Predict the structure.
Amino acid sequence: MTAGSHGAGCGVVLRMWLLGVLLLSLLSVVSGAADSKAVTTTLTTKWASTPLLLEASEFLAEESQEKFWDFVEASQNIEGEHDDTDQAYYDLIVKRASALLSSVQLNMLKFALSLRAYSATVHSLQQIASNEPPPSGCSAFFSVHGEKTCDTESLAALLETAPERPKPYVFKGDHKFPGSNPDAPVVILYAEIGKPEFQRLHQVILAKADKGLVTYVLRHYLANPSSKKVYLSGYGVELAIKNQEYKAKDDTQVQGAEVNATVIGENDPVDEVQGFLFGKLKTLYPELKEQLKELRKHLVESTNEMAPLKVWQMQDLSFQTAARILTAPPVDALNVMKDLSQNFPTKARSITKTVVNSEIRKEIGENQKFFKGTLGLQPGDSALFINGLHIDLDTQDIFSVFEVLRSEARVMEGLRSLQIETPYIHDILKLNVQPSDSDYAVDIRNPAINWINNLETDHRYSSWPYNVQELLRPTFPGVIRQIRKNFHNLVIILDPTQENSAELLSVAEMFYTNNIPLRIGLVFVVSDGDDIDGMQDAGVALVRAYNYISDEVDSQSAFEAVIAMFSRVPIGGQLSVGDVVKVLEKRFPYVEVSSILGADSSYDSNRKEGRGYYEQTGVGPLPVVMYNGMPYQREQLDPDELETVTMHKILETTSFYQRAVYLGELATDHDVVDFIMNQPNVVPRINSRVLSTSRTYLDLSDTNNHFVDDYARFLTLDTKEKSTAVANSMNYMTKKDDGYIRPVTFWVVGDFDQPSGRQLLYHAIRHMKTSNNVRLGMISNPSASPSAETSRAARAIWAAMQTQTANNAKNFITKMAKEETAAALERGADIGEFAVGGMDVSLFKSAYEGPKFDFLLSHAAYCRDVLKLKKGQRAVISNGRIIGPLEEEEVFNQDDFLLLESIILKTSGERIKSKVQQFGVEEDRASDLVMKVDALLSSQPKGEARVEYGFADDRYSAVKIRPTEGDVYFDVVAVVDPVTRDAQKLAPLLLVLKQLVNVNLRVFMNCQSKLSDMPLKSFYRYVLEPEVAFQTDGSFSTGPLAKFLDMPQSPLFTLNLNTPESWMVESVRTRYDLDNIYLEEVENVVAAEYELEHLLLEGHCFDVSTGQPPRGLQFTLGTASEPVIVDTIVMANLGYFQLKANPGAWMLKLRKGRSDEIYKIYSHDGTDSPADSDDIIVVLNNFKSRIIKVKVQKKPDKFNEELLSDGIQENDSGFWESLTRGFTGGVKTDEPKQEKDDVINIFSVASGHLYERFLRIMMLSVLKNTRTPVKFWFLKNYLSPTFKEFIPHMAKEYGFQYELVQYKWPRWLHQQTEKQRIIWGYKILFLDVLFPLAVDKFLFVDADQIVRTDLKELRDFDLEGAPYGYTPFCESRREMDGYRFWKSGYWASHLAGRKYHISALYVVDLKKFRKIAAGDRLRGQYQGLSQDPNSLSNLDQDLPNNMIHQVPIKSLPQEWLWCETWCDDSSKKKAKTIDLCNNPMTKEPKLQAAVRIVAEWTDYDQEIKRLQTRVQERAPENPTAQQQHTDGHTEL
């Protein structure tokens, strides 16, 4: 090779020569080396791939429905507008969307499409469509109130008859065409956007929707779904190194090859191995490709040797890894962190050579003080904050992080478009403006309240202490202090003629007679007519009798008399005048009753005040009970509930008073009631409209130069621009004409030419005149189409605001709001007569009489299109929050405006105002900014508060990446120890974030010192791509996958998936044993394929009357056509339940049988149907966790029945089905009783090919020895695809039933990370919920056991009342004494002479187990003990032994379980089962032991192998027969 031929300098030649020498010298070393091995993992959905166009439309729908429909319009003909490659199609989608999205949101869209986040949304609509069944031959169709067609001609006929049929259910997430007429028939179009068929039907329906003839709803529907599946991302894959102390590998050879070897990192552009950049070398020297490949292989192998490290070498690994990351250039630091943490076992040796400089150590130490103090993080902990929002890596998955990013981007872009500078944006974000859920109270200092007692003056309390300092005296917890002060005031507002009044009064009497320190007041709301005869009206009679007695005697006697009157009323009856008269006659025999009760009674004071007080406070429907002015919720008014809640409130408030006394805010000489009523949460009137937490806001985050006086132009604007134009054109009235920033802006909307509109305006003006924090603007919403006659007042107001000084305009408009002015104008009076002093009348008149009504037309259009009001309807908009539409007669008065103002000032107004003041803009614009920023921040979904974090310094110990100047950026802070599982997840997440958005990123190292063990014993990959990837020919690449390349070949690996909480995944295709991956025996690639089998629907259920979870209650989930698809049982821990579902709309019901006989559903929350509807509909339409709350109540006639009684379900068909299902699919038998007695239920768990081989042999040994029918139950979560495929053949061959059960480890229960321990957990923790209630006894038999007897004997064994029976450990083999850990230490003292039992074989009486809540106790104990990593070392065995005192164990006779390790040889001949226990002395491998110990083992093994061979030979003939029956419960 001459230099000339390369036309390059001799540097190249020299380099080439060196490389050549190096390669030659290495070739001899490498020639014998094996090929590089890899492990790959993919996760797909069960459903067919959904088109990206539809997913993009769902993304836009979350922005706004308008954008969704604009996108649909733009994409109608997308099929014909690109050449046929996938990439062109994708680019076009992105291009169409870019017209509607900002650049940040466009990146979010690309990420969403890469995540396939909206695939579930599209598929859920597909599932809803399949419930419709589509008419034949239609690829898109209309459904008009249940009638379906794709023929546009017949649509008109269907619309005519539509009102006769019920309206279809429209879901919250449905796409309703804006401007659809809500009263018209609903037409649902099922179609695929972008297809010609869609375009045809869409145009037809659009024309009708625009005329207001239909409500148009669009749902995605694919007539012929793709054959491909959706490849998911957002999960982690772990290759953990297994402990090989006991050999647990199967020796059966794996058959056949099935792999595509292109995954090896040929095309990685960098591909660095030991400092050589092979990617670069290959491009520079293409002709040396083969030799480079060999060199790379050699280097890989030399680095991958995982020789164990000494303890002194491990001590500093955390700091050394951090130092390696921090010395890399910032651009690469995250990649280095990802590489080191994810491949730590092979990198550790080289990391030990790194030197850590003292500055890094010192700064990390300083920072750790801050982490601990402000964030509560210990060294080694990690945390992630995005704009100060804490992202919990354990509970939040990538989908919820994506939501956070999107909503943050919206707020930041909103603030940006209000022209706020970038540095200030983060200041404003930190303001916590969420509406506080503090309970508002009304003032109870009102003469309308009849106080029964007064703790401060009544004689009966005179022995109690008077000093408020008594509050600080220590007492036992839960003791209510008796102090002679009115700390606690209970007011009951009631209508005496309502039937529940008696109950409430009896609770009040109970409080009073038991000397509870509670001042009780009554407000009677009765008829307030003028001359009413009490002899005719029981309510009025009661009030007059009460007044008479309290005047003559005292209020206590009056109260006692009222109680006596009510005690005469029969249950469910009403108070009558007779009851009042009888009590009066008995107590005051000499008084003329009619003079007290009659029409001209002199005891009629404060009768009208009661109703007045009730209406003025606005506390909602009667009866109302208030504690210190705070109304109770409806469900708390139940008498028992009322008592507990009140006691609870007394104790709760005591601590508030203690603090006030301690800080000196409350002293003995203060009036306590005044002190309570001066608290900020006390308002003059409670208006549920104002206080409700579900709020809608206008989007005011836009800046433009449009106004309302150009109507034609106004109509062309979109919603956001219209709002801005209205704000731009608004003129305001204020209390004073001074330059003051006013944090509260009210827009009053109404028809000011109607009395109702004028009244609302008048109340608003009266309030505005009392407060300088408020500015008031007006929007006209005319009742009729605008003309000179119908808009006098509206035009006068507008003209005055346009032409007069603020003060004159205010006085003039106040006049216009009065009724007499309107009446005069109506009679034809001249508007000039009402002019106020100082007004420029001629200027005013020229504006008033001008011919243009543009402002009125614009306002009317704004009310119709944006505020969604009908003509003439009223509303109030406060800082962008829409309160309305107000009902015809609804009062919204000065007090309501005051309440609104105080809420705004308290939550957001003052804070935003003080920030805006720093910007130094002029007052009007500043007040506008406060309004717009408030609307933007308050409209965000209520989340966690933002965290303020401080750091000592970030010079040496943090990776810093600066944002691009000038753009909006996300402030991302991560705290991480680089050698933890969190770092393995965080590094790839941060890398994707950095590509996705503009970030100001700081990653602080939080290292642990003095490690004594290898911190990470696993390789890890996090599957996440920032955007969709393509192949070179423009087609989609196969999809995201986890690749473990160049893995070391000596260790034994086990593969685990780490998915979001609500995903249930199963392994579907792989020949290899994923529990024991030994790469030396693999040809080149282990390809593991998983499928997302279910999305979980989780929930919590409580009984309303007891507040306790209804243990044993069952729910079913299904569709209208198939109501029971899956079922579940409610746990007592947190009332938790889980149901396996998939995207779509599901109906949740109580299970037929005892559940729905005893209980009914009372209310539900977090579902998709209105809270009062009987059908609970839940729509699963995304990958995020879904948790609902259900409250149930016993039916009145079943109040004393228990679900788990002993006389349970003798003939409850729901359960029989699940028993007779088996593998036959279940034909119902006629004699369920006998069926039940005669099935032996055997439960077992296994994972990995070896244990599955043992499991098959265990089953065979059971079947050979047991004459009764057997049903096997297996835990599905960890079974390999091979086992699931083979089991139906085995069931057919040997005639047994089986069912695969599964349960997802609940998120609230302490998680185990090691696969073996998780499986142990499943053996014991969920026994009460894994099986249907009909299974009342089962045996657990370990997979590695051989049975030598009929198991019927064990099933019928008398447990003598214990919930389960275990065999104790044998003690006869004496040479093993040193290994019997239960003979000394903790176990010896805990067991106190009882036996320690082995968990390889046990029998459970589920009826008893459920009745004593054993499952809940075991989980509770587990939760407490498992926090300590050193406890429960054999989880499944230690837990029941530890709980032996709470959940008794019946010891089975010793011969039920013989195992060579612990039992002597002489007892073997009596053994009924033989278990292959591990032997801690010899460490003999399982397979070897099996052949040696159990004579019949080899025969069983051969018999099953012969069956497997037969099955394999038959397989090609009938490929579809595979996996016909995977699960006794039908799959969703």
